[in-house]
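F.,

This is the one I mentioned.
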């Protein structure tokens, strides 16, 4: 419901004014705060009731557990007293041939004399090592001879080395008639003189001892059980609620329904015992934080009042001054002038907005003036460009005239050199274009090498492996000529023997792979790393021999927008190969 109201406040198809929007925000805020308050109060109340019930159950279980442990400790002390009785010692120490019914009765009477000082002990069983038994209240138990004659039931008692071991139902060797569970304290008996084990004592504590304890504590919502789920004392109606998760010594809480009412079921096993204590407590009104709720109600009214005050303040100090600023700007626009505005505003932020608007007006007027001046300068520059275009044509015509003169004079080689030079400059200038097809870049290199061959003769050879697909790729003008020039002056010529310059171009994965290789003196790895790692602004560290190569690499990086565009491989005295990888950016020539 609240989401629909909130959506209706802020999702109107019409554009709302700031004042209307603020009103909507205020109303929405009040609705959200009220809903949040009601929900928070409900959640806090429920959680506090649950937490209070949990804390109370934990306290009750802890108190009862401590009392049960104290009660068991009392019976442990009693068991130690029984083990030191003279009639018991005589019974345990005698040879099997001397043990008779009178000796067993003496032992039984000795136990009964000790038990007269206490209540709650249902029976005491004394077993010699040869399993001859002296016991009280024998005929109220049914013994399991198979288990009794075995060794399994003795293991935990023997492992205790004389310490008390707590179990349920005579450690499994006997069950009380009418299936009434008992808590058993077991001890291994050791001779005081020889320290040899002479027998086992089992003391069974009846459920009445624990019932009496519950009555003394006035607990009626408690069920005491064995870890096997057997009922010992308390409210037997809760037996069916027992689960294995209550076997933990940490108190476990669960929500259950008892008589169709939601109640809290808490349970925990008493440490070092097989006894489980469970408590069922209904959720009542106890634990509700009434003071906290009163404080929350007060805070709700304070928030609503503050929200209304904030709305009034915003309208008086923000929305109305903004309307005045907007009206002044609109009047300025309707007049068709870029003049400053002067509106009295109540705070510095709106004054900053007014000043920024006036500064923008000044800046716009300044830009308009610069734009007019720039347009004038552009027209002047265009006139200069038209004049400069005359110069290349004069250069071409002059080279042609000199060439014809050389041809008429019979200097055929001079005529061919001038023709090649003219072709080189025509491709070099390329009508002012910055980027040209690779085919034209190859012609520039061929013309340049033709001129160089006139000087160096047979020591220089060139070869080309250019794929048809690669010739249409657009590349920056003059990326090959500086490399070829480096090959001649810093590679082949210093070697002093005939060399070859190989230019290869192919397209792989829509990228142009362009390489220049010479059979010159080669480069060291240090020179290669210096060229590859030098950044722009550090070019003064590059020597003159490598500056042309570094500049070409930087141009390719700028053209492609990628740093990793070149690889250099070389072997001293054998070769140097430089390869560029250029994507097909499809720039029109001249860009």
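My design for it:
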């Amino acid at each position: 419901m609240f989401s629909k109201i909130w959506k209706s406040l802020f999702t109107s198809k019409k554009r709302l004014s700031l004042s209307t929007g603020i009103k909507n925000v205020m109303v929405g805020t009040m609705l959200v705060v009220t809903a949040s308050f009601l929900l928070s109060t409900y959640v806090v109340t429920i959680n506090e009731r649950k937490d209070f019930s949990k804390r109370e159950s934990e306290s009750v279980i802890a108190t009862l557990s401590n009392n049960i442990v104290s009660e068991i400790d009392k019976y442990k002390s009693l068991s130690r007293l029984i083990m030191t009785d003279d009639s018991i010692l005589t019974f345990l120490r005698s040879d099997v041939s001397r043990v008779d019914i009178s000796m067993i009765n003496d032992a039984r009477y000795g136990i009964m004399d000790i038990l007269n000082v206490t209540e709650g002990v249902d029976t005491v069983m004394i077993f010699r090592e040869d399993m001859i038994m002296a016991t009280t209240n024998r005929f109220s138990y049914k013994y399991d001879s198979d288990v009794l004659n075995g060794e399994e039931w003795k293991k935990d008692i023997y492992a205790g080395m004389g310490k008390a071991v707590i179990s349920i139902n005579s450690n499994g060797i006997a069950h009380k008639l009418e299936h009434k569970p008992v808590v058993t304290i077991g001890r291994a008996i050791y001779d005081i003189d020889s320290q040899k084990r002479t027998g086992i004592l089992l003391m069974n504590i009846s459920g009445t001892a624990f019932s009496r304890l519950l009555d003394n504590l006035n607990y009626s919502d408690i069920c005491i059980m064995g870890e096997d789920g057997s009922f010992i004392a308390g409210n037997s109606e809760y037996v069916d609620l027992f689960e294995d998760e209550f076997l933990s010594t940490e108190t476990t809480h669960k929500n259950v329904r008892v008589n169709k009412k939601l109640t809290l079921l808490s349970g925990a096993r008493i440490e070092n015992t097989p006894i489980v204590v469970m408590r069922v407590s209904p959720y009542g009104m106890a634990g509700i934080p009434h003071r906290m709720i009163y404080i929350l109600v007060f805070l709700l009214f304070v928030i609503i009042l503050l929200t209304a005050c904030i709305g009034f303040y915003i309208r008086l100090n923000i929305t109305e001054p903004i309307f005045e600023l907007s009206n002044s700007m609109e009047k300025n626009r309707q007049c068709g002038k870029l003049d400053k505005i002067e509106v009295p505003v109540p705070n510095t932020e709106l004054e900053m907005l007014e000043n920024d608007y006036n500064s923008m007006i000044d800046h716009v007027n300044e830009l308009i003036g610069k734009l007019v001046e720039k347009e004038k300068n552009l027209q002047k520059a265009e006139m200069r460009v038209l004049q400069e275009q005359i110069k290349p044509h004069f250069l071409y015509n002059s080279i042609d005239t000199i060439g014809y003169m050389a041809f008429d004079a019979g200097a055929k080689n001079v005529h061919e050199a001038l023709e090649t030079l003219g072709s080189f400059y025509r491709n070099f200038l390329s009508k002012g274009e910055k980027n040209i097809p690779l085919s034209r870049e190859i012609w520039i290199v061929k013309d340049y090498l033709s001129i160089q061959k006139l000087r160096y003769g047979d020591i220089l050879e060139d070869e080309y492996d250019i794929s048809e697909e690669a010739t249409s790729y657009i590349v920056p003008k003059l990326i090959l000529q500086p490399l070829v020039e480096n090959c001649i002056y810093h590679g082949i010529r210093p070697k002093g023997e005939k060399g070859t310059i190989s230019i290869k171009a192919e397209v792989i994965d829509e990228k142009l792979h362009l390489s220049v290789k010479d059979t010159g003196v080669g480069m060291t790895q240090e020179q290669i790393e210096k060229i590859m790692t030098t950044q722009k602004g550090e070019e003064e560290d590059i020597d003159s021999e490598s500056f042309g190569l570094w500049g070409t690499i930087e141009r390719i990086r700028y053209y492609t927008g990628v740093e990793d565009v070149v690889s250099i491989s070389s072997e001293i005295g054998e070769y140097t190969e430089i390869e560029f990888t250029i994507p097909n950016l499809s720039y029109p020539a001249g860009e």
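The chain has 15 helices and 19 strands.

Talk soon.
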